[in-house]
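User: Sequence in, structure out. Go.
Assistant: Echoing your sequence, followed by the structure tokens.
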Amino acid sequence: MHSSLVHMTLAHNILSGSLPLEVGKLMHLVVFDVSYNNFSGEIPTTLVDCSNLEYLHMQSNSFHGTISRNLASLQIIKELDLSSNNFTGKIPRDLEKLQFLRFLNLSFNDLEGEIPTTGIFGNASQISLIGNKKLCGGIPELDFPSCPIIKGKNEGSIRLLLYSPQYYHLPF
């Protein structure tokens, strides 16, 4: 299936089920908006094959799973809205590398861990992460709590081996 479809908006319907893997065959897709539906399941792995994608709006559905680091393959993406779903896990650091990304909304999911600080994450006016109570860190303007310092098992102890000079035959 080859398609020259560039704009697909299915927003504000009562569509349900999971998105088919075939969505990745829409190679020329620039805008993909399935927001405000009842979609569930994970983001299709084939979505990253839509290399012309600039606007991806999937907010207000019931998508779940982790946010794939493969989304960073969408190198010219400008807007990414995955808010108000059921995503879990950490924010993929690879999203920091998306140099054309101007709007990122991951709010109201169940994300956890440290918020990246470079790329789009360095500009609080371009991202929204509210409603993710297990996130920490990030730039101060985001106003998230600091991440806890995780102490290592052997913290505070140094293994030191001392050797007596009588065991060495130094050449001088």
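User: And one key feature?
Assistant: The radius of gyration is 23 Å.
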